[in-house]
Amino acid sequence: MYDDTATPTPDDTPGPDGVTRRSALRSAGAVGAGLGLGAGGMLGAAGAAHAAPVPDEAPRRHGKTMANVPFERRSTVRVGMIGLGNRGDGMIDLFLALPNVKVVAVCDPVRAKAEKAAAKVVKAGQPAPAVYAKNEDDYKNLCKRGDIDFVYVATPWDFHYEMCKTAMLNGKHVGVECPLAMRMDEIWDLVNTSERTRRHCMQLENCCYGKNEMRVLRMAHAGLFGDLLHGAGAYNHDLRGLMFDPDYYEGPWRRLWHTRLRGDLYPNHGFGPVGNYMDVNRGDRAVSVVSVGSPALGLAEYRKKHMPPGDPSWKESYIESDRTISLVQTAKGRVIRLEHDVSTPHPYSRINSLGGTLGLFEDYPPRIYLEPANTNDQWDDFKKYAEWDHWLWKEHSNPPGGHGGMDYLMLFRLMQCMQLGLVPDFDVYDAAVWTAPVPLSHLSIRAKGAPQQIPDFTRGEWKKARPGVDSAKPKA
Fold it and tell me: Residue 107 and residue 383: Cα distance in Å, rounded?
């Protein structure tokens, strides 16, 4: 797996403050660099310390919009996979289960992981893929290949930006695990690169394809909730044991992010589905975020109880809030609440709620209250609304893979769009908006809850209604 402790390469580009992207990520002292944009570009460390808000004006577009841009039609999609650790190792099984999809190249600097993935490809009856495992930069050689249509990135967060950009500059569409990037200048650069290269850069947000999420999405669009008012999403998942497991997160890259940022490190799982309900980027837009955070105590408490003296983790100082709560305001005045908590004990929850003038849905456990059917202040059974299931779930009632099947449906739909030459369900603008709370929540917390403006990454295209995940079933 890609490791968080690698030596910076000569390709690392210094920002205006003289800090390279990769060194900034690996230095707690440079945590503020690149988190926000000033009128002339990236804020330096001093600007970040004052948490200056992002201006509403978007940078000049250097290419045409990528909204409503279809893929080129192709009978078979050829895939290159970068990162074959925990996530990549599971996802390759799903790529191999998809019709008319070939895995032609795999990459991971840990050769054993790359070779394990290659063996899976051969076992599935496909030709042996090319293996790229020389070093952390070997992914660049994978991206240069002429026989790849789509690059899948499942590496630690530090590498997402540079790998997505490299894939697009080499003519490849790219899909990346959450989050898109960790800095606002990087997010903007990926938007601009997607527009210049005419390649799609997509956040592979599997939670948008959850069965409950897709049912609520269709119900919302059908008007069952009335006029939408508020929603909530979260990533509340106790990861303490995994973050201190030396074999699970190598580096240990994920735990080290808790020494760098105070805000919401992983907003996408909550933001994506609720943003879809409210047609964010498709008739509404997220305009600002306000964030507050609790003290950072959970990881230190866990370390005290479970880690032996002399363990390298004792040198770490954690600043990431145990519970981050953010409020996103939309152009239509709606409110989205986002939560993040991976360092305290609690059951798993993405919250996943939606409220409107006719009622409310809340998940974990799923329950609903809608007028005129409900009038007694008692929750109703969400199973009664199965007729509103998305066509993907009606076609694939028992999909393979983890996370309840939403991983498979996400990939199935993406590959279907590529094969049929359709517009993808989400694009680089969705990836940018869903990820923007990473740097902006940090700035808001440092500024004691001051609002931070969310840029209009679409540059005005959000005003136009257009399809998204609530897509029509393609005609045979």
Answer: 43
Q: What is the DSSP string of 30-76?
A: GTTTTSSEETTEE--HHHHHTTPPPPSSPPPPSS---TTPPPPP-SS
Contact 424, 266 (CB under 8 A): no
Helix/strand/coil percent split, the chain, to 5: 35, 15, 45
| Burial label, 376 (beta-carbon count in 10 A; 0-12, 13-18, 19+) | exposed
DSSP state of 93: H
- DSSP 8-class letter at 450: -
Confidence of residue 24 (pLDDT cuts 50, 70, 90): very low
Q: Measured between alpha carbons, how far is 51 from 258 in angstroms, rounded to an integer?
A: 19
Q: Which amino acid is it at 356?
A: G
Q: Residue 33: pLDDT above 70?
A: no
CA distance 257 to 25: 8
Q: Rounded to the nearest 5°, which phi and psi values hold at 278?
A: -95, 10
pLDDT, tens digit, 9 for 90 and up, residues 160-185: 999 999 999 999 999 999 999 999 99
Reported pTM: 0.90
Q: How many CB atoms lie within 10 A of CB 382?
A: 17
Q: Helix (H, G, I), strand (E, B), or coil: what is residue 361?
A: strand
| Mean model confidence pLDDT for the chain | 90
Q: Which residues fall within 8 angstroms of residue 333, CB to CB, at 6 or more apart?
A: none
Q: Are 313 and 302 in contact (CB under 8 A)?
A: no
